[in-house]
């Protein structure tokens, strides 16, 4: 399995990272080296083995479905790169 | 004897006996940081005034007879822990302007114990790296030097700033986080003790997320006892972390004198990798002898899936990272680069804000989770991860703890191992399996190599049995008598 330039561009698009044409070839080589390394998992027999998703050897807890905080708009917006009253501001989305 | 020679335990006693004050101790450390940090770059942000305010409060607390073992102790906080009102960057340019409006649980618990925070320690960007060279705020210099050489070495990573700060005596102890070895490998590279506790032991709330099923906070300090004191304060159940363990926290310092008599110590054949540095193997053999001499029974064990640990890790960790780092979009917090429309803004923001290693991992993660590849990569890796856990479960039927080297080499030079990403990843070969299984593991300084650089041994324990890890680590520490000091340090 080897990635081509078009696939690298597609992954970058999915990851929402802008890549210049000059970067594509470097990324392609590096990503292929990593994917080449992980190929070795192909030789492991995992027949009947359940996937392990977490490090916690426990069932996840549930909490009561109640409001535990709120009224902290100022705190939430304090780090916003751009805001308009109590809203995050972004470039126009709908024409 | 200089004030910098004190350990946390010793400084705590002197503070309690009012032989020194917290303000005196903090002032000495603030001055040391001011003198050496411009060279070592161990801290991204220093907070000397805040530290002094905290030290004054600690002195008042000591005077009132309400002090604990960490009251007035100056620490470095890895810049991955959110600290209310103090910039938290995760060593990424994308978080350069970020000032958290809240405190992480671990740092809050340390502050509640009366600790003094000297500043935010440097790290690999988003904790992705094994040498601290991926930091957006410059690399960290290891305070240790090869004999007769002034060449700059890396402190390991990702908790490289924490390691350099404690080793050079710019802090008495530090917090680290460990996803695949990020506490243990830098501890080994700088002659420190450091423990990654069981997954779930310390709350992840307020720690900038890298790979959530692996991330775990832990302490780094000059000896095993100091790590136990720090972990006592850092650990504990937290309702704000859904994977936090609802378990009582024992007093880890009580385990230090338990000894290893009658303990069964496993030696995994698969860690004797072909081509491993003979010095590392010789030190491992010495560790085996030390434990045997103290009454432990040595048992040969097998962890047959060890060799697949790194491959699993380099699928699982980037997959989780690609999802966790989706939040950095230039909308709610962090840096923004304007674009012609919303998507263009996202793409420009992330291109400018993330460094090359972070981009690589996000892209690998995006790929292995993408349609058509999920089963072949991600699901497969999760299954092999289960086999790695099973290896440990089977081994722990026969043994109480496992002894291995921490890292395949001593600290290497800045600029080495840069040929391709995989060469750098191989640093974590001995530490990643314990992370994948979620079991506790500690690195203890055990000796020097022929060039005068520190080497560590790793003790791995059963889930939530940090006490045996501490007992075995303390036994190694006693036998090793490690007392070497780095060239660059506060005196």
Task: Based on the model shown, name its key terms.
heterodimer, A: 95 residues, mainly alpha, Histone, subunit A, two-stranded antiparallel sheet, 2 strands, flat, B: alpha/beta, Amidase signature (AS) enzymes, 11 strands, 13% strand
Question: How would you sum up this structure, described in words?
Answer:
The complex is a heterodimer of chains A (95) and B (491). Chain A is mostly helical. Chain A has a domain at 5-40: Histone, subunit A. Helix content of chain A is 35%, strand content 4%. Chain A has helices spanning 5-14, 21-38, 73-77, and strands at residues 83-84, 87-88. Chain A has a two-stranded antiparallel ribbon. In chain A, strand 1 (83-84) and strand 2 form a beta hairpin. The longest helix of chain A is centred in the first third of the chain and has 18 residues, at 21-38. In chain A, 15% of the residues are buried. The mean pLDDT of chain A is 92. Chain B is an alpha/beta fold and 491 residues long. Chain B has a domain at 3-255: Amidase signature (AS) domain (Amidase signature (AS) enzymes), CATH 3.90.1300.10. Chain B is 38% helix and 13% strand. Chain B has 15 helices and eleven strands. Chain B has helices at residues 8-16, 22-40, 48-63, 105-112, 160-167, 184-189, 224-234, 278-293, 309-324, 342-353, 356-368, 374-398, 421-425, 432-437, 466-480; strands at residues 43-46, 74-78, 116-121, 173-178, 193-196, 216-221, 264-268, 297-301, 401-405, 441-448, 454-461. In chain B, strands 1-3-2-4-6-5-10-11-9-7-8 form an eleven-stranded mixed sheet, with helices on both faces. In chain B, strand 10 (441-448) and strand 11 (454-461) form a beta hairpin. The longest helix of chain B has 25 residues, at 374-398. Chain B is globular. Classes of the chains: A mainly alpha (95), B alpha/beta (491). At the A-B interface, helix 1 and helix 2 of A face helix 9, helix 10, helix 11, helix 12 and helix 13 of B.
